[in-house]
Amino acid sequence: MADVLTYVLHYEGAFNKNSLGAVSEGAARAAEIGGECHAVVVGGDDLTDELCQTLGSYGATKVFRAKGPEGLAQPVVDVMAKVIDEGGHGYALFGGGLLGFEIGAGLAARKQAGVTMEVVNVRAEDGKLVAERPILQDSKISVSHYQGDLGIIIGRINAFELNQSGSGAAEVVDVDVDYSPWSNQAKMVKRGEQRGADVDIEGADILVAGGRGLGKAEGFELAEQLAKAFGGNSAVAATRAVVDAGWYPYAAQIGQTGKTVSPKLYLAAGISGAIQHKVGMQSSENIIAINKDANAPIFEFSDLGIVGDLNKIMPKLTEAIKAKKGG
Ligand SMILES: Cc1cc2nc3c(=O)[nH]c(=O)nc-3n(C[C@H](O)[C@H](O)[C@H](O)COP(=O)(O)OP(=O)(O)OC[C@H]3O[C@@H](n4cnc5c(N)ncnc54)[C@H](O)[C@@H]3O)c2cc1C
């Protein structure tokens, strides 16, 4: 029997969806090994009893609430380490995303615990949890078993589905923490939503995906204009190269370390077609690629390939679609 501890990020009166997925997953798996799922929240007065109790509907039985800076990794590591020291939790489980990776790695170092990143499936085996993660460009699954008192599981972003089948309100327990001296070294300067962060690329019928060939962040305007011309359920997506460069939000990333999509139409502009990108979009119904390099790998799995400069082709395509639609 072991309890599972999760961390739940909070912003402007709402809990982060990825974190709620982790609570749902933690509750389901903890039940399979005879344990409970508990959550840690760190923040200010806006983390009210009522708000924290709602985590019960995702399956958390207890919420450990600490006063502290929200959205920074090291203070959360301090809180989780204390809760685990006192509560003897067997597993810490996080949704993916930069903060989950950072907190999970910090906790692994602090507690000398085993950690598995990019987990897509967790299951119970002989009363313990094991984590599964894809390796070798998603062609194989690696299974991690944990030794020692604590195992740390960090999911791929949105790998864990929300489940609101929990019953009742979670018990809220206030925790006093002496933060480590280094935990106060970083300050939160500003929080905000990224452009496009709320776009539902997984549910879109038409995706205009941009890569490094767009040249710069402003190049994404070509993709946005084209998506707008298509209208309906269209959205803009991106490769990892460009989200890493800060040209477009992570939420729009397609591929091995991003999202998997299967829209009716996937239009790839200035994307080479690396295997890590391909695994996230290859099941699209129709793939059109625009690339100036006739030998770009993307043409190998495109239904229609256009060889040429996207700066010339995309505006013309946008105008043609608008004209066709009578706009
Ligand atoms: C562990 C790991 C995980 C990864 N996960 C992902 C992932 O989830 N998603 C992902 O996308 N990548 C991922 N990558 C990165 C991946 O390997 C590639 O580096 C990335 O997909 C390349 O992005 P890109 O196609 O935008 O850039 P590039 O490979 O640089 O391609 C740019 C393309 O634009 C074309 N081009 C340039 N100018 C123009 C123009 N004016 N007109 C038309 N075409 C033009 C070029 O010919 C080129 O083909 C991962 C890598 C690793 C190692």
Structure description:
This protein is of the alpha/beta class. It is 27% helix and 27% strand. It contains 8 helices and 17 strands. It has a 7-stranded parallel sheet with strand order 7-11-6-1-4-5-12. It has a 5-stranded parallel sheet with strand order 14-13-15-16-17. A 3-stranded antiparallel sheet has the order 8-9-10. The site of flavin-adenine dinucleotide has 28 residues, from α6, α7, β16 and α8.
Which blocks of ≥5 consecutive residues have pLDDT under 50?
none
Strand order of the largest sheet: 7-11-6-1-4-5-12
Run of helices and strands: EEEHEHEHEHEEEEEEEHEHEHEEH
What is the SS-derived class?
A: alpha/beta
Average predicted local confidence, pLDDT = 92
- The percentage helix is 25-40%
Shape: elongated
Describe the largest sheet.
Answer: 7 strands, parallel
Hetero groups: flavin-adenine dinucleotide
What gap, in angstroms, lies between the N and C termini?
63 Å
| Strand coverage percent | 25-35%
β-strand number: 17
Secondary-structure map:
Blueprint: E1 4-7, E2 10-11, E3 14-15, H1 17-32, E4 37-43, H2 49-53, E5 60-67, H3 73-87, E6 91-94, H4 98-111, E7 114-119, E8 121-125, E9 128-135, E10 140-145, E11 151-155, E12 171-175, E13 206-210, H5 220-230, E14 234-238, H6 240-244, E15 265-269, H7 275-281, E16 286-291, E17 304-307, H8 310-324
Parallel strand pairs: 1-4, 1-6, 4-5, 5-12, 6-11, 7-11, 13-14, 13-15, 15-16, 16-17
Antiparallel strand pairs: 2-3, 8-9, 9-10
Helix pairs in contact: 3-4, 5-8
The chain binds flavin-adenine dinucleotide.
